[in-house]
From TrEMBL, chain A:
Recorded GO MF terms: ABC-type transporter activity
Keyword RNA-binding appears in the UniProt entry: no
Entry keyword annotation includes Phosphoprotein: no
Pfam families, alphabetized: ABC2_membrane_3
Highest classification ranks of the organism: Bacteria, Bacillati, Bacillota, Clostridia, Lachnospirales
Organism: Lachnotalea glycerini
Subcellular location: Membrane
UniProt cross-references to PANTHER family, sorted A to Z: ABC TRANSPORTER PERMEASE (PTHR43471), ABC TRANSPORTER PERMEASE PROTEIN NATB (PTHR43471:SF3)
Protein name per its UniProtKB record: Sodium transport system permease protein
Keyword annotations from UniProtKB, A to Z: Membrane, Transmembrane, Transmembrane helix
UniProt topology in membrane: Multi-pass membrane protein
From TrEMBL, chain B:
Keywords, comma-separated and alphabetical: ATP-binding, Nucleotide-binding, Transport
UniProt source species: Lachnotalea glycerini
Protein name: Sodium transport system ATP-binding protein
A single GO molecular function term of this UniProt record: ATP binding
Domain ABC transporter residue range list: 6-245
Annotated family: Belongs to the ABC transporter superfamily.
Length: 390, 258
């Protein structure tokens, strides 16, 4: 094996990828930028929706509002306007055409005390009219009914749950952020790695076959194993840069997406965890690139390669989804022998800071073995005249 | 006696075809014989022109010599260049293309490194070849921006980066304008004078007339004729001789042709 040959070919591939400003932008900058913009917008949209609903300046209409509940509403910063019973139909009409938000109609002789709860016939009915086609009206309906229910409970209050400023959730910030990250990051990362690997793997092998530049390389005295190794290495480097760009985009957009206050999210993991994260992602990329390279070598055109690889996307997303379903990462070491699944499980473990070094080693070593098997298959394919000349 | 650089002995090559292709080509078996028991020797300092129609087996033959594919039977012995520890064959074919993203300078150096050429020698070699082929003027222009003739010149230079003794040129003047064709023919003559052995496959009889020392004709995978150019054209011109041989194999009578 000549490292000089591998480096020469890999350098050419990298020069081609990064020497072109357009390719450089689409592989190294665009993935992160697109994710950052997209997820920040998603987060902002969700936050805005919440803000609209938090705008409690909208007042509600009440009829026969009892004094006790009036005080309770005031204490809860709920604005209201009490109107006469005769205006009931007028108010309903206004809610219907979304001019007013909500009408709470208390019975004439409404009393908050002296009711016998065991007598079902004596239970008083509070009528709350709203318009479900209006988001604000629906929201206010939910808020007002909750308030009234709470008030009812408070009358017969025997005990409270967590009714103080004490920190009851004992999970650390790192754990809760890690849990959030582990639910979405592996799936997102798998999707992104797939899309960036797809284009470069299809271009680098099927594209070269299509253009006739692959045969030119095969005429040289360089061994087919070295050519396969150089291809996989350079493609993995490009994919890794794309993956890092995507990861940065995800991390920078997470404060918006998860409604967190600052970028401290970057600081929740230590150097060791970041190193493990890097090697895990790199290991996943190597496996994906190796598999894709084989499919790409079988194809005669870029189009054929991308079509053949498209079912792979569903598989990747499905594997990424396992983190959302599972309560904890796979515990048996042999499960870390399963390609791609092992990487996702390892990512899951690192993100929630449950690192098992045996599992990590099994994942990394087995993936490296799979990559070498793929390189061997690829080099055999480069020897096959039917594959090279179609 | 001339020094033998390449020996091709009873070479046989078949290809498997799909059932669909079998139906289209109306062939009873799934195997197609591309090269059928071909033997020929190539000597130092000669231009061996290979004539044949499309599908005659010329390209398969050349691919086997360039060790891109292996023969099913037979042997191809190439005299190694002891001084240089690299392949002693340069291969130029329309199938082998250069990446349009790179410049002639970059590609020449890239292939030079793959042939393990020392950087000083590579510099010298580039200077000589680029000057001879007049590539200097566009050495820093990306290939995708060059004309067909310019690209062909770069391909020739790259295929000769390691200064091989045997040069395979598969239709080197294909698609070139008259000026570039003339330049390429002149360059091939110069290579011959340097003592290089050239195997040249072409459809252009004029190229054969200008360059050939010996001529081989392939029809349906077989080498039906292999003789010195003077012998080949005895009593008739290249074109007449070729069609006489070709229709002879195909079983078409002269009067039917007329």
């Amino acid at each position: 094996m000549s490292w000089n040959e591998i480096i020469t070919i890999a350098k050419k591939e990298l020069f081609k990828s990064f020497g072109n400003k357009r390719i450089l932008f689409t592989t190294a900058i665009m993935p992160g930028l697109v994710i950052f913009v997209l997820y920040s917008l998603m987060g902002k949209t969700m936050a805005n929706q919440q803000n609209i609903e938090d705008l409690n300046s909208s007042y509600i209409i009440t009829i026969n509002l009892p004094e006790e509940i009036k005080k309770y509403f005031e204490a809860s910063n709920l604005e209201f306007q009490n109107v006469g019973y005769t205006r009931q139909d007028e108010m309903k009409e206004l809610i219907k055409n979304k001019t007013e938000v909500l009408l709470v109609l208390f019975p004439d002789e409404f009393s908050v005390t002296g009711q016998d709860s065991s007598d079902l016939n004596s239970i008083q009915n509070i009528e709350v009219y709203y318009n479900s086609s209006s988001k604000l009206s629906s929201y206010m309906y939910s808020k007002v009914t909750t308030l009234i229910n709470e008030y009812e409970s408070s009358i017969f209050n025997l005990f409270d749950i967590n009714n103080s400023n004490e920190q009851y959730d004992l999970a650390s910030n790192k754990e809760s952020v890690g849990r959030n990250l582990s639910a979405i990051l592996p799936m997102l990362l798998m999707g992104l790695i797939y899309s960036c690997c797809l284009s470069i793997a299809a271009e680098s092998i099927a594209g070269e076959k299509e253009r006739g530049t692959m045969a030119t390389l095969l005429v040289t005295p360089v061994s087919r194993v070295n050519i396969a190794m150089a291809k996989v290495t350079s493609l993995s480097i490009v994919a890794l840069i794309s993956g890092i760009s995507s990861y940065i985009g995800i991390v920078l957009s997470l404060p918006s997406l998860l409604n967190l206050e600052s970028l401290n999210i970057l600081m929740i993991y230590n150097i060791e965890e970041y190193i493990l994260l890097f090697f895990t992602v790199f290991s996943i990329i190597l496996v994906i690139i190796s598999i894709m390279s084989i499919v790409s070598a079988y194809s005669n055109t870029i189009k054929e390669a991308t079509t053949s690889l498209s079912p792979f996307a569903a598989l990747m997303m499905l594997i990424g989804l396992t983190c959302m379903i599972q309560t904890k990462p796979a515990s048996h070491w042999w499960m870390y022998l399963i390609p791609l699944y092992n990487g996702v499980q390892e990512l899951y473990g690192i993100l929630i800071s449950e690192i098992n070094y045996i599992n990590f080693t099994v994942m990394f070593v087995s993936n490296s073995v799979y990559v070498f098997i793929c390189i061997f298959i690829l080099s055999r394919m480069f020897n096959n005249e039917k594959i090279i000349f179609g | 006696m001339k020094e033998k650089l390449l020996e091709i002995k009873n070479v046989y090559k078949t290809f498997k075809i799909s059932k669909k292709q079998q139906k289209i080509l109306n062939i009873p078996t799934a195997k197609v014989v591309a090269v059928n028991d071909v033997s020929v020797d190539i000597y130092k300092g000669e231009v061996f022109c290979l004539l044949g129609t499309n599908g005659a087996g010329k390209t398969t033959m050349l691919r086997m010599i360039a060790s891109l594919i292996k023969p099913d039977q037979g042997k191809i012995n190439i005299k190694e260049n002891i001084e240089k520890d690299v392949k002693n064959i340069g291969f130029l074919t329309t199938e082998l293309k250069l990446d349009g993203f790179f410049t002639p300078n970059y590609l020449f150096d890239f292939f030079g490194k793959l042939y393990h050429i020392d950087s000083n020698e590579l510099l010298q070699r580039r200077k000589i070849l680029f000057e001879l082929l007049e590539i200097d003027k566009f050495a820093e222009v990306k290939l995708k921006n060059l004309s067909t003739g310019m690209k062909q010149k770069v391909s020739i230079a790259v295929s000769l980066v390691h200064n091989p003794d045997i040069i395979i040129l598969d239709e080197p003047t294909n698609g070139l304008d008259i000026v570039t064709t003339r330049e390429v023919i002149k360059f091939i003559k110069m290579l011959k004078e340097e003592g290089k052995s050239i195997i040249l496959s072409t459809h252009i009889f004029d190229v054969v007339d200008k360059l050939a020392d010996r001529v081989g004709v392939m029809v349906e995978g077989k080498m039906i004729c292999c003789e010195a150019y003077e012998e080949f054209i005895r009593g008739m011109n290249t074109e007449e001789k070729f069609f006489k041989l070709y229709y002879g194999v195909k079983g078409v009578k002269e009067n039917e042709l007329e």
